[in-house]
Design goal:
Blueprint lengths: L20 H9 L6 E4 L4 E2 L7 E4 L2 H9 L3 H9 L3 E4 L7 H10 L7 H11 L29 H12 L3 H8 L17 H15 L7 E5 L5 H7 L4 E6 L2 H13 L6 E5 L10 E7 L10 H11 E13 L11 H7 L8 H10 L3 E8 L1 H17 L1 H8 L1 H19 L4 E9 L17
Keywords: Lipid metabolism, Methyltransferase, S-adenosyl-L-methionine, Transferase
EC number: 2.1.1.-
Protein name: Class I SAM-dependent methyltransferase
Amino acid sequence: MTTFKDSAPAGADPHTWKMSLSEIFETLLGGNLSIRISAYDGSSAGPADAQYGLNLKTPRGTTYLVTAPGDLGLARAYIAGDLELVGAHPGDPYPALKALASDLDFHRPSPLALAQIARSLGIEHFKPIAPPPQEAVPRWRRFAEGLRHSKARDAEVIHYHYDVSNAFYEWVLGPSMTYTCAVYPDHDASLETAQDNKYRLIFEKLRLKPGDRLLDIGCGWGGMVRYAAKRGVHAIGATLSAEQAEWAQKAIVDEGLTDLAEVRHSDYRDITESGFDAVSSIGLTEHIGVSNYPAYFGFMRDKLRPGGMLLNHCITRPDNASRSRAGSFIDRYVFPDGELTGSGKIISKLQDIGGMEVIHEENFREHYAMTLRDWNANLVEHWDEAVAEVGEGTARLWGLYMAGCRIGFNRNIIQLHHVLATKLDDHGGHQVPLRPWWNA
């Protein structure tokens, strides 16, 4: 049983004795550390021969940790360079983060120990300071951009996350410029092979053929649009990111696809065309907001012809009861206003709008962990260029975010689901085969 330091050592004056920073960490984490903790006050805790460690380098880092306990404070200190994960590259801190996560079983010390921690730290560390510049403002301050999930506010959120730098995304995502979960045909497949396989799978699930019309909402850099156009499908994509639309349109021209493909810098809700044979949404649902699902799915239904196909690809929770809003770190640094829910709720919301029948769903949780692994590897390979392009703080943020999400997928904290549906005709019938027709 661990004994926590809630009183002064023998012989020490209890009125003047202070805990070291490493003792505070050890107390809060419950002891029995598997990583090595060191701090700028010269103290350390945990196994001396530990492969990975956490090094608190500055008093500012202490203030970040104290004023925002949990993942937000850790992220602030790490992104600002005040906290170091020892033993791992900042472009891929997954091994060290995984080891740290095994120790993050926060212990609730006694009131006496909490008082001693506060006295040891000093009042100056309890005064909030400005966060790193990469951090978005909190939810309550975002109303300047409009109500939650209004067109104006959604545009600002997408600009924040996606208009970082096309060059940066090229280094991280690779030639496919695809920022969604890949589908690996086997464990040894490359990222590019897996991304191409994902588009192939979606294309087949949607039963697309030459001459058909596809609408891809939240199309990113136009990967699905261009894949379909190369196979004779007339495809329109919509993205709220100006940089994505510019990159995608250039790729369409360069690949000779202008007669079949178009990517618009547009809110998907402003697409006026209808009668599409298929609608795909690959990685957009996370930005929609659960309360807006009826309008979101209703929009896609109304864009389809009877018998048309819909595929929704999005990150999900492993249950349908958890709160939908993202945690503080994700909301401030990655996807402001993002929301996740379970695949069951997505299916029920799609069914409830009427006129659609869900015919298949599947989970690609392990595939997303592998995708993130490969993105982290790309960031490590291009670390110097990435830092020169976006700054070290932003590069560290992306390394941390991708590694943290990888842990989430590996531990089944989050999942990735495809939900496939078809639009029924006026008599409630559909035109799909009796059994799945695609190559899994």
